[in-house]
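Entry 14. Ran structure prediction on the chain below.
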Amino acid sequence: MAAPKKGRSASAQSRPGRSLALILIAIVALTGGMFLSGHSTPRLGIDLAGGTSITLEAKNEPGQPNAINKTNMNTAVDIMNRRVNGLGVSEAEVQTQGDRNIIVNIPKGTNSKQAREQVGTTAKLYFRPVLATEVSGGAATASPSPKPSSSDSSKDKASDKATDKATSSSSATPSATATSQGRAVTDALKADATPSGTAKASASAKASASTSATPSPSGSVDPATAKLQAQYAALDCTDKAVRAKAGDGVKPTDPTVACGKNSSGQWQKYVLGPAEVSGTDIKSAAAVFDTQSAAGWKVTMDFTSGGSKKFADITGKLAKNQSPQNQFAIVLDGEVVSDPYVSQALTGGNAEISGSFTQTEAQDLANMLKYGALPLTFKEASVTTVTAALGGEQLHAGLIAGAIGLGLVIIYLVVYYRGLSIIAIASLMVSAVLTYVIMALLGPAIGFALNLPAVCGAIVAIGITADSFIVFFERIRDEIREGRSLRPAVERAWPRARRTILVSDFVSFLAAAVLFIVTVGKVQGFAFTLGLTTLLDVVVVFLFTKPLMTILARKKFFASGHSWSGLDPKRLGAQPPLRRTRRASAPVDTKEA
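Output, structure tokens:
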């Protein structure tokens, strides 16, 4: 039974070329991917490459004089940091300054415009029913009616009247110019889709009731409704300044006016009822590419249990209305991003926003919905450019220190291990190539940015990698000291060295992981780089160092124990193995025998 086991072991040992070929293919593939992606150098952090510094000032909310406080400011910092630095390695810095300012530092190479939108957007999302809409400068499909002020029961009656009024208004103006916005919210469960594939959404009939009712017997118009009508008539959505102020300071429970672009790129203006579903009712959101239709990128949303019930209730009520009062608007920070209509109640608890999104737009919207709305509204106080002069000097000094350390390690290896230093230096080079290429690829992949602490982590990794070689070489020397030849010594030393290397690297990786979890900012860059290089050390030792040592052990220079091989038995103090020799037998006297 022992013979087959020995044969299998010998077969495995005789094919170290497979491991070398595997790591060579990996290096070529990663290097090719690096050049094809157009990112041949690692993305640098703000301390090494400079970047943009944005100062955001918190604004007072209407009716909330004490909203600007330490708790809300810290919450805003946390949300902004997750938006622009989700994995903690993109080197975007977010911190408070004083009582009402937040400083955001964005490294060079990051899309500063996109990052500014990410951190500055409040991301307050509401689902509001559409009461009237038209192309800015066109004809309305409906107009707001006087706002009733009564109990809940009277509101329900007013809702029925509002529905009838909307129906007659819609049928009376068949040539209305209003159009749907093109982006649709549909139920994620396709079983709820209508035969025509129309979009679905939610709103509230009760919301319509709050803004649509018959005039009072005296013919007077409620002042709030009259004001809303005047705002709607004067609203010019083609004017950026007017759009920015539309609905400014309006509470979610009040009707408002808003602007948004339709599918043809024209600005559309709306009269919207009170919000019935808010962004806080969304449990999760994700950007998904729709391969089943021409919709392209879309944002899928999952509601909370409470949000699912609201969504089902209001879509069931809205489905009874006529256009445009069977539509509702998805309003993000005061701007309508979608105005789909409802044809039936949606009970799946899932919805999606689809249409003419680009990948970046879909991912940004999903990111803001996922991480939640900011508790405060901010305005940009200043935007400045940060230079990398100081960081460049520190990097230069750090690289000099790293080069000195690497040179000392190589000198030590050459003097002490002689020929074996070839294996160690080649392994260090392979580890350096893999580290560089992976860092360059991680920039566009996860936003990784190389900063000064990360450079320190890479320098520390030189010692970790060299330590693995030393453990392996010393195990081989121990076997030679016991009188074994080189090839058996390599194979017997490897299992013992492998255990020691794995335990040592596990401890280093565990320390890096804990440091990454419990720290923030630049220290995370150090921990991330240290953990990455520790994993690469295991890969290099297993797939390069050991196979290369196995191949060189067959060469005469190493196998014969040359004095410059680093494995000379005499220099190691090895005793030659004892060999028994036959003693010549004395002649036998046949006569005596």
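The chain has 18 helices and 14 strands. Will compare against last week's run tomorrow.
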